[in-house]
Automatic annotation (TrEMBL), chains A, B:
<protein>
    <submittedName>
        <fullName>Transcriptional regulator</fullName>
    </submittedName>
</protein>
<dbReference type="InterPro" id="IPR036390">
    <property type="entry name" value="WH_DNA-bd_sf"/>
</dbReference>
<keyword id="KW-0804">Transcription</keyword>
<dbReference type="InterPro" id="IPR036388">
    <property type="entry name" value="WH-like_DNA-bd_sf"/>
</dbReference>
<dbReference type="InterPro" id="IPR011663">
    <property type="entry name" value="UTRA"/>
</dbReference>
<dbReference type="InterPro" id="IPR000524">
    <property type="entry name" value="Tscrpt_reg_HTH_GntR"/>
</dbReference>
<keyword id="KW-0805">Transcription regulation</keyword>
<dbReference type="InterPro" id="IPR050679">
    <property type="entry name" value="Bact_HTH_transcr_reg"/>
</dbReference>
<dbReference type="GO" id="GO:0003700">
    <property type="term" value="F:DNA-binding transcription factor activity"/>
</dbReference>
<dbReference type="InterPro" id="IPR028978">
    <property type="entry name" value="Chorismate_lyase_/UTRA_dom_sf"/>
</dbReference>
<keyword id="KW-0238">DNA-binding</keyword>
<dbReference type="Pfam" id="PF07702">
    <property type="entry name" value="UTRA"/>
</dbReference>
<dbReference type="Pfam" id="PF00392">
    <property type="entry name" value="GntR"/>
</dbReference>
<dbReference type="GO" id="GO:0003677">
    <property type="term" value="F:DNA binding"/>
</dbReference>
<dbReference type="GO" id="GO:0045892">
    <property type="term" value="P:negative regulation of DNA-templated transcription"/>
</dbReference>
<feature type="domain" description="HTH gntR-type">
    <location>
        <begin position="3"/>
        <end position="79"/>
    </location>
</feature>
Amino acid sequence: MAEALYRQVASDLRLKINKGEWSPGTQLPSEPVLETLYGYLVGKGARLSRNTVRLAMAVLQNEGLVEARQGRGTFVRERVTFTVLASNEEGASSGRTDRDAFVAAVSVQGRHPEQLEFRMEIRKAALEVAERLRIDEDDPVVVRSMHRLIDGRPWSTQESFYPMDLATGTMLMSPSDIAHGTVEELRRHGHAQIGYRDEIVCRMPSQGEAVVLRLGAGVPVLEMFRTAYSVAGPIRLTINVYAGDSTRLAYDIGSQPVE
Amino acid sequence: MAEALYRQVASDLRLKINKGEWSPGTQLPSEPVLETLYGYLVGKGARLSRNTVRLAMAVLQNEGLVEARQGRGTFVRERVTFTVLASNEEGASSGRTDRDAFVAAVSVQGRHPEQLEFRMEIRKAALEVAERLRIDEDDPVVVRSMHRLIDGRPWSTQESFYPMDLATGTMLMSPSDIAHGTVEELRRHGHAQIGYRDEIVCRMPSQGEAVVLRLGAGVPVLEMFRTAYSVAGPIRLTINVYAGDSTRLAYDIGSQPVE
DNA sequence: CGGCACCACTCATTGGTACAAGTCGCCCCG
DNA sequence: CGGGGCGACTTGTACCAATGAGTGGTGCCG
């Protein structure tokens, strides 16, 4: 066997998509059509079985190239990306809120931002949280979380973790948004932020994430762990999970040339 | 229908893996065994069809949780991650080479680094390259590329693009490694690097990348575009493609607390 | 003329079968 | 005792069939 039939079909379809022969949004031929269309691979006038065609489509879906909608058809996926400049957020001088920062950044790129489902709760710290905040596992932490949307599409989830001893007596314990922002609120209580470390990984989404972010098959997520520090140590851990197909993170390091 | 059978099977297997009931490296029950094992989902004493079981396994493979090897079995995937501190590389003071930086960073984490397949060629600039180097599409660029391995496993590919006018007359045109490093070589020719911008995206690998990096199904890649600047403008674009399941990028922004 | 029912088409799920191909160990034969 | 062959077991590929379920348009009926 030279190469599996379904791989040949997938490769040919992939080629057509990458060459722009089928542009984003285009509907692919239906499965029965593809059966006869690629029948020549096994013989003149022959047809492929439906399973073989579906295996090929599964490959492309897992690559995030196409998206199947039951009852409608299969379409070339189209996604626009939003760039997050992650290196100059949370400037010491700014009095703007986190919300404002997000709204401003998105609006500049000509999109419509939204923040949803703001929640505050108290949880026991998981291992990856405890390690970064330098507390013990299962120590209580304050969690403030939300979802973000761009142009009505789910884009990212955010969870911020604060050590209990820092949060007590501050507005961080309030179950609503803070007008002047959490960074400023912590500063007012003697925990001025001096910097942060971002750790970035990519992986396939969990089931829950796929639902919340409305990710199709074959779309990975970008996960960012931001540990913020005061001079005394960690004051916050923020975990952002971004839809991988519509997010670009940017960091400016050192000096940038004048434009 | 409550939920598709194959999804129920996948969910249950996923749960067992995540709970650590099956640790990394463990062999999963074979397909025929799973058919009977989960037969109870459709009725007492019943069996699932092999297709259903295989669909469930495909889900887990696409999530990067397990890895099937023909003739052997299906195994819980095990991967260790390597962290790249991307924010303090290429310091102006260091005389170290790029190679040394990689080797040192990996060795510190107790692993064995390798660099392979060094190549130099001249190509026409693709759009994404031309935009960042601020040259015209199809302008010639010097490309220097390599693969990197950790503990004998492919880990990342790197391609560095230099504008033709900067590279001519420098060692960048030589088809071999530069002892003092490319940053230093450019500085000697009047193009001192003052900073860079990193852009990070994640996506599913192309077929070629999956082969070169030996990625199993369901493993995404992290792609980093690093545009380096002198005071006059862009002097280099480096594109790194990392195996997503074994890479963590880190950026330190602002001050870090003293340890 | 408006709304609803139905049909035609799409992909989704599940069942079955057969054979190919890779891996490994056992057993027999030299 | 050593080595090769064979067989058992694994996943991979390919086919067929039937039914479920979502979408959209057409046309009939009130």
